[in-house]
Amino acid sequence: MLIPHYLDITVHVWASNFLPNEPRLADRCQREYYRDKGVPMLLEYAKQEIQRKERVVVENEDWLVVVPYWATWPFQTLLLPRRHVLRLNDLSNEERQSKRLLIKNHSFRVAFRLLLMGVLLHCRLFSI
What is the pTM of this model? Predict the structure, then answer.
């Protein structure tokens, strides 16, 4: 069975010896927020999203996937830990496993929605 290109969920990793402009600005803002408030900004943001339940896509005991209010792309999501984690190496084995399962389930949902959108668009274009 051939899988359409829009169902190909991939992750791209770029590596360099410097921090690009946008991530550098985000890093600076988050560091300032932490210095001023004593709590990580994204952890506070996750708590707000959990309370509001407006943009939560899927969650489990360790992770939260939301559509951030600043999203610019269709199906853009943000994966957030429920506790402060500095590095991926700091995750427990259980947290790594729950992240894998969450991403797998979420990726299937996104792929299925894209497939449905493609089918509906095809039907409209060709009046099927």
Answer: 0.68
